[in-house]
Design goal:
single chain, alpha+beta, Helix Hairpins, Heat Shock Protein 90, five-stranded mixed beta sheet, 9 helices, about 65% helix, rod-shaped
Length: about 350
Amino acid sequence: MVLLATISGLHYLTTTQHDEAHDIYRRLYYIPIVLGGMWFALRGGVSTALVASVIYMPHVLYQWNHSPEIQLEQYLEIVLYNVIGFLTGFLTKRERDQQLRYKKTAEHLDESYRTLRKQADQIIEIEEQLRRADRLSALGELSAGMAHEIRNPLGAIRGTAEILREDVAKDDPKYEFAEILIREVERLNGVLEDFLRFARPAPIEPGFFQLNLLVREVLDLVRQQASNSHVELNFKAGEIDEIPGQAEQIRQALLNLILNALQAMPDGGRLTVATRLVDNQARIVVADSGQGIAEEDRQRIFNPFVTTRSEGTGLGLAITQRIVQGHSGHIELVSRPGAGATFTVCLPAG
């Protein structure tokens, strides 16, 4: 509007003797007309052209009535104002509509891509679960055979070792050999138990338990081992009522995590266990000050038979994850080499 008023002022303040100046002024009207069309599309272009025509018309009628041939040319210019205003606004509107269509198409393609990506991830996850199920099925058959073929000889070996120990004085070196034999049989039997527990997990019986009480009981079980390893135990209990689940299985899962943490601190350290309630989710945090877990190991730490220690079956965390997932929960892991590891067990609170 300011530009229109300025151009019109030049027209009305300039005498008709300066016809070359008027030729320039009337063509300056195209600038606000085109800008109006570009800024406000069809409505802006047509409106600006009409305003320019209305403002310019009295100048043509009253100041150029003495020159009919020039007056006709100016009338044609007024028609061109409206044509240019309409075309500029129309083309701008079409361009904006086209850009809007492109934007909607791009958003639709992006949404389709995200959907396909999500479906592809789900397919990969399902395939991995199927492969895992195949491995577990084979492991279950293997475990059944192991239970029969290994446990019976183990029982016979243990019984024989106990008989030999009873017939030997405690200060005799053979007594110590018998003790070693019994301990190794117990260790081998524990390995077998891990196989069986992982391959054939016990069904979850519905029930409720006090989470903080269960954590305290587990810490009491490992307190002596922690003291022997010079590990300081800390428990930060949150305000959590009873939660659904099978207490024995959660106790086993928590015990596995705490024992792993203690084994990660052979030279002492600090182990902190905390419970909290977040978004109707009970969380058990087990944080140690050990050496941490390398990135390549974090990617496969919950796979069966994967261990970072020279001893062990690599089934402890796999069993823990199986138990937690069986309770409709999940485990989160945060760790950096040299900065300890933090496992967070997330379970439904209701």
